[in-house]
Amino acid sequence: MKRISIFLLLLLPFYLFTKCITEDVSDRNYPRLMTLDVSDNTVGGARYNARFLNPNKNPIRFYGFVWSEEHLPNLEESEKVVFSEPLISNKFSSEITTTLLFPYRYYVRAFIITDDYLVYGNEVYFLSNGSLAPTISSFAPQSASWSDTLRIWGKGFSNMKSKNSVFLGAIETEVITYSDSLLTIKVPEKNNAHSVPLSVTLTRKTATAVGNFLYLVPTILSVAPLSGKIKDTITVTGINFNTNPKFNNVTINEISAPVVSISKTAIRVLVPETLTRSESSLILRSMGNTIIWPQSFKLDIH
Question: Which end of the chain has fewer surrounding CB within 10 Å, N or C?
Answer without folding.
Answer: C
